[in-house]
Recover the amino acids of this structure.
């Protein structure tokens, strides 16, 4: 039987998933989800949070007694914690965009070079363009290049790995040429504030209060919607948990940040990007289609989804977020150097993978990717506090990446 | 003495006992059929035999030539003369026939492969299975039937004395089936013991010496084929007497809702080769139009082309409710009210990692949920109703689709298309590889949907299915319509004659 009609029109490399479908269950076995068993997805989430807390406690314990001001450890002190979140914000923003591309079954290796290019262009645009010119240049450039690469992948059928590997080289070359190798300082004060500024404490409290209101409102309106559709409503206990847990986290967060001088602006940007990203992936047709395309491109196409358009869009969104990340990075460093952003694509991909994203597509969450970025930043920060040698830090991070996926595979096999 | 004896085999998966004290034996030169519904444990039993589940992961004994054997790997089972040809063929498309046959067992000198010897031995094996091909041909160029024969050649090269055939004819044409049966008879004469798993009872009855029925992981009984008949075997498989499995249904036919005129489809890989030639058909509301034909007759290509999903060049006209429409991509088809339950649900129908709900709403998402922002609760309500209507067996709409049985997966795909609110529904092999009980349910749904006024186009390789459900049958042969029958005129013999190339114009 030769069925040309069966040929998928989006090519992807043969993966182990083709040999043994991830959902494969031996004949006659209906995998059962017991009443008290957690679904695999939330089990993973808990494991990840547990690992994160373990890492934090470990560094807290190891940093005890280093500084007499913090007898119980420096790591979780307001100042350091605020610093840690600031450090992760660039990777975090990139990881949110990268997640969407990976979920759609693609990859983007050009992200680091593009951070360098967009940051450099933003710094150069300060002079004639002012603040709007600088910010606009980075964002527009990010989107344009993202869409361009996405078009090559989606419409010219060039594998994303190749397109963006080319981008990794080419965009670095472009910024080296444009800047002639020079480092360009950030002159506009507001631009600089994007990287190092802190939200006034009172404003932080207002934001926290709004966030709490939003949590309460969405929980109740969700329950109303369930009643309207004739679905079983959440019990009082579940409703309370859905409100109390986020509220406690919000209060703890704002307390810690305000004790450190206020919420850092890049952290606020990351939070906004993460919330928007989570909304986009979980609550829009765009997000749903990305998962379908990454999970089974043939089924997605036959369900009427314009695969090419959505792949292009995912690259476009990532491009925009690369623009945002380049601004945060340039502002934080205080200048744009032509080698800025080197290896950031790998950090972003690693964050996604540690956060449970499958590189084969179709699986992963924004919250996972952000926690993945947080785990990586925590390792960086903690090891630096302990004065661990640079080379050891690389080795540890590499080992953690591989181990995280290893544990994940182990867990999947059992379940 | 038996060639093979499996004693009291027990195999459990988390939460499920897949095999519960199954005993099975096989004599040299015998063809022993193993039948049962999907999920009865046939494949699991064969995986125990073939070393896929290593010794220690199951209970009971595997005895060959009176000696208890413990296989820790597929390779060990192969060395003991066991060859299993699974339903999903395990050949590597990029490698040649010869390379596939000797994969991992290449004749070599100090690790260097002796290609001349490999290919000359492969040629002899191909002659033996009557496959007139050069062993240097890449397997990807072969049809499924030919690949099946390559698998058998591979089994022969291993000098297998126990050969397991799992649904070997599922994808074969009649001619290929005949070749296969000739080879089976020759192997039988050579003393090879064969275990034959099939849903096609007519084949089982014409080929086998004995039949063992499995149900829910237990042996229901083993008897000589001559002592059994089809109704009794079916009764044992399902544990109840099955009446007529095709409910007699009368469909009220309404207006003509869908028409295809002069559809022609070119093979995207071979210029000038036509897969579908000048095919026209009409369907009325409430009518089931069956499309019969052999594998490769162009039935799926026709549907794919009408649906706007065929990669080849397509010409022809489509009319919905009398109006000419242009369907360039699946989203156009969906917008005009065409639904398409595609064949091969795992490949074309489902995103296996996703929940039942996300699969059900995938095609109709903007309508069910919202153009951009989705409304999970509205979806869950619609999905929950569909799940109840089609009786999908799962804990909730949030169960992952990949964990469902074939029949339930098929119902999810059906639900996906019903939730697009179609006026015309294409069904391509809607019951392939699902058990008898689920088949019967699907038949019931097809009849109900037709009664509710949906126009249905049904493609199936199972002739009884086409004849039992359709009001009208269109027969394709090599891309051309060779016959059209009303329900009352459609006898299996007449339809088969057209499917093999005899032309008839009527109805």
């Amino acid at each position: 039987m030769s069925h040309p009609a069966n040929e998928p029109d989006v090519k992807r490399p043969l993966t182990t998933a083709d040999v043994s479908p991830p959902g494969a269950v031996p004949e006659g076995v209906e995998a059962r989800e017991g009443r008290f068993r957690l679904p695999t997805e939330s089990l993973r989430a808990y494991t990840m949070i547990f690992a994160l807390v373990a890492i934090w406690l470990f560094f807290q314990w190891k940093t005890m007694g280093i500084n007499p001001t913090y007898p119980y450890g420096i790591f979780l002190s307001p100042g350091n914690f605020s610093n840690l979140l600031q450090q992760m914000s660039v990777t975090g923003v990139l990881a949110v965009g990268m997640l969407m591309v990976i979920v759609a079954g693609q990859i983007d290796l050009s992200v680091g070079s593009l951070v360098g290019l967009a940051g450099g262009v933003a710094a150069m645009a300060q002079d004639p363009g002012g603040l709007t010119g600088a910010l606009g240049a980075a964002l527009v450039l990010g989107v344009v290049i993202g869409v361009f690469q996405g078009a090559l992948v989606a419409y010219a059928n060039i594998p994303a790995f190749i397109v963006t590997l080319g981008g990794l080289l080419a965009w670095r070359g472009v910024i080296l040429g444009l800047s002639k190798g020079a480092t360009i300082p950030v002159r506009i004060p507001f631009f600089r504030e994007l990287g190092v500024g802190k939200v006034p404490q009172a404003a932080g409290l207002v934001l926290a209060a709004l966030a709490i209101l939003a949590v309460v409102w969405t929980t109740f309106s969700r329950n109303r919607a369930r009643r309207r559709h004739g679905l079983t409503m959440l019990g009082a206990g579940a409703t309370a948990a859905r409100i109390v847990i986020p509220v406690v986290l919000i209060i703890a967060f704002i307390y810690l940040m305000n004790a450190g001088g206020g919420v850092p602006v890049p952290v606020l940007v990351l939070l906004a990007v993460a919330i928007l990203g989570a909304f986009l992936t979980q609550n829009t047709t765009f997000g749903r289609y990305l998962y379908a395309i990454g999970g089974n491109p043939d089924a997605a196409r036959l369900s009427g989804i314009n695969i090419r358009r959505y792949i292009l869009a995912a690259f476009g969104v990532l491009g925009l977020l690369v623009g945002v990340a380049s601004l945060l990075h340039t502002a934080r460093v205080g200048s744009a150097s032509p080698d800025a952003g080197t290896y950031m694509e790998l950090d972003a991909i690693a964050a996604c993978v540690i956060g449970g994203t499958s590189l084969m597509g179709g699986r992963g969450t924004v919250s996972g990717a952000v926690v993945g970025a947080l785990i990586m930043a925590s390792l960086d920060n903690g090891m630096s506090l302990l004065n661990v040698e640079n080379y050891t830090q690389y080795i540890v991070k590499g080992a953690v990446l591989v181990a995280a996926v290893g544990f994940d595979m182990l867990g999947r096999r059992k379940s | 003495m038996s060639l093979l004896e499996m004693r009291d085999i027990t195999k459990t998966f988390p939460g499920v006992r897949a095999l519960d004290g199954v005993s099975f034996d096989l004599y040299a030169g015998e063809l022993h059929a193993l039948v049962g519904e999907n999920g009865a444990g046939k494949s699991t039993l064969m995986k125990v035999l073939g070393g896929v589940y290593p010794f220690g992961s199951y209970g009971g004994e595997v005895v060959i030539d009176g000696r208890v054997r413990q296989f820790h790997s597929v390779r060990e089972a192969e060395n003991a003369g066991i060859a299993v040809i699974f339903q999903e063929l395990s050949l590597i498309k990029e490698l040649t026939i010869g390379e596939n046959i000797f994969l991992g067992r290449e004749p070599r000198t100090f690790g260097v492969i002796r290609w001349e010897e490999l290919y000359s031995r492969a040629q002899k094996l191909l002659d033996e299975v009557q496959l007139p091909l050069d062993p240097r041909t890449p397997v990807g160029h072969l049809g499924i039937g030919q690949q099946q024969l390559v698998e058998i050649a591979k089994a022969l090269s291993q000098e297998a004395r126990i050969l397991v055939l799992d649904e070997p004819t599922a994808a074969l044409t009649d001619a290929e089936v005949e070749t296969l049966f000739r080879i089976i008879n020759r192997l039988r004469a050579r003393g090879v013991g064969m275990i034959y798993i099939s849903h096609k009872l007519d084949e089982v009855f014409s080929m086998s010496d004995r039949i063992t029925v499995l149900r829910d992981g237990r042996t229901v009984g083993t008897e000589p084929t001559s002592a059994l008949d089809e109704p009794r075997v079916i009764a044992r498989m399902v544990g109840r007497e099955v009446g007529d499995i095709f409910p007699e249904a009368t469909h009220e036919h309404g207006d003509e809702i869908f028409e295809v005129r002069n559809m022609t489809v070119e093979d995207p890989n071979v210029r000038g080769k036509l897969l579908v030639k000048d095919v026209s058909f009409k369907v009325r509301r409430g009518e089931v139009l069956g499309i019969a034909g052999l594998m490769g007759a162009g039935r799926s290509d026709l549907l794919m082309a009408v649906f706007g999903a065929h990669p080849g060049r397509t010409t022809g006209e489509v009319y919905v409710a009398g109006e000419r429409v242009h369907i360039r991509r699946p989203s156009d088809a969906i917008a005009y009210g065409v639904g398409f339950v595609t064949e091969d649900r795992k490949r074309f129908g489902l995103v296996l990692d996703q929940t039942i709900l996300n699969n059900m709403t995938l095609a109709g998402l903007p309508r069910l949920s919202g153009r951009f922002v989705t409304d999970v609760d509205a979806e869950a309500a619609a999905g929950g109703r569909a799940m109840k209507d089609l009786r999908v067996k799962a804990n909730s709409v949030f169960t992952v689709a990949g964990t469902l049985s074939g029949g339930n997966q098929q119902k999810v795909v059906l639900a996906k298309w019903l939730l697009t609110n179609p006026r015309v529904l294409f069904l391509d092999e809607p019951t392939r590889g699902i058990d008898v009980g689920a088949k019967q349910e699907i038949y019931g749904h097809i009849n109900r949907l037709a009664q509710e006024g949906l126009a249905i186009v049904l493609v199936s390789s199972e002739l009884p299915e086409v004849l039992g459900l359709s009001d009208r049958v269109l027969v394709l042969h090599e891309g051309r319509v060779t016959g059209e029958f009303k329900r009352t005129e459609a006898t299996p013999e007449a339809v088969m004659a057209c499917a093999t190339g005899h032309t008839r114009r009527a109805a």
Notes: The first strand of chain A starts at residue 184 and ends at 185. Chain A has two domains: 41-197+265-410, 199-263. Chain A touches chain B through 52 residues (CB under 8 Å).
